[in-house]
Amino acid sequence: MAVYTSITTEELTLLLTDFNLGTLVSYQGIEGGIENTNYFVTLNKDDAIHDYVLTIFEELSLEEMPFFVELGQWLAARNIAVPYAIKDQNGIALKQLKGKPALLQPRFFGADVPATQLKATHCFQIGEALAKFHEAGADFYLTRQAHRGVFWWRRESEAISHLLDAQDSALLKQEVRAFDQLRDAKLNLPMGVIHGDLFHDNALFKDDALVAILDMYNAATAYQLYDLAIVANDWCCNTDCTLDPIREKALLEGYASIRAFTDDEAMAWPVLTRTAAMRFWLSRLIPWLGIAQASRQGGAMKLKDPNQYKQILLSRIKTPAVLR
Ligand SMILES: Nc1ncnc2c1ncn2[C@@H]1O[C@H](COP(=O)(O)OP(=O)(O)OP(=O)(O)O)[C@@H](O)[C@H]1O
Ligand SMILES: N[C@@H](CCO)C(=O)O
């Protein structure tokens, strides 16, 4: 169940009075999300219908929100098709519902492409869009340490190791070390704001054309190439967890058509594709193993299969990725 926080018409109407965007026609909870509660909200202003999405944040605190509010507005102002928090009549975008952070954002129309239907054209377009996202975000004035980044995976890989068999535990630790070695090598790896979770279900397409990138709540300051590795592992993955060279080539070409890779990035790519696989293996393992997530206040969580990401990691080790 994706709607963790239920709201009443009265609560929504009260929130909307701050905005002057029109009167409430309807609202409906969106199924499918994992981390947040989302509603489609339809308003009528001067006899015209306008659609919005209301997001209520289940995990992020109010203190963490300004980075995301500012980022959405920053990217949208630079023509990146992402949702952004609309400011109310007093210039305030960050609202609260039931004591949780809440944002009202424009709604995009499109649908995500199911994994089995992803083609080279989708991968080329998402590569291009990600490079534009990175370029627009390169001089974003706020920074953020990823909450599931290097410090998290160092800590969590230790914390769960007693629940894993010796082989898995060693594999996890090996990948944590490989990333530490990469960092120590001080390579020329461009950094900036990254999306952090650009899986295919976070992109909307219409008639095979990319419409928008959603769900930026894992955004952080990190290596741009690591973000591309997250995309590659998801968008170019076959059902048997090997990687499709045709889709991966299209993804990399799309990205490079906007931003050329550095020589050091070509060196780092095989490791970063492994790091990105390890990160999602670990983040899926934790709830899978029944470890309580302290930040979550109830609500049944939809579990994703950690083994898929272990297999992707093994594929990346067996056949090291090539950037160019
Ligand atoms: N601005 C928007 N325009 C159109 N649809 C949206 C918008 N924001 C969210 N949605 C819809 O809501 C769904 C869930 O949103 P989102 O991915 O942000 O939530 P989430 O709980 O973080 O999910 P997950 O963790 O699974 O990615 C999206 O897949 C999309 O269908
Ligand atoms: N995209 C993540 C879940 C949401 O962060 C995963 O597939 O594990």
TrEMBL record:
Residues 27-261 form the Aminoglycoside phosphotransferase domain. The keyword Amino-acid biosynthesis applies. Pathway: Amino-acid biosynthesis; L-threonine biosynthesis; L-threonine from L-aspartate: step 4/5. It comes from the Bacteria. It catalyses: L-homoserine + ATP = O-phospho-L-homoserine + ADP + H(+). InterPro entries: Aminoglycoside_PTrfase, Homoserine_kinase_II, Kinase-like_dom_sf, Pseudomonas-type_ThrB. Keywords: Amino-acid biosynthesis, ATP-binding, Kinase, Nucleotide-binding, Threonine biosynthesis, Transferase. GO terms for biological process: threonine biosynthetic process. GO terms for molecular function: ATP binding; homoserine kinase activity. Its EC number is 2.7.1.39. Signal peptide: none annotated. It holds the Pfam family APH. Belongs to the pseudomonas-type ThrB family. This is Homoserine kinase. The gene is thrB.
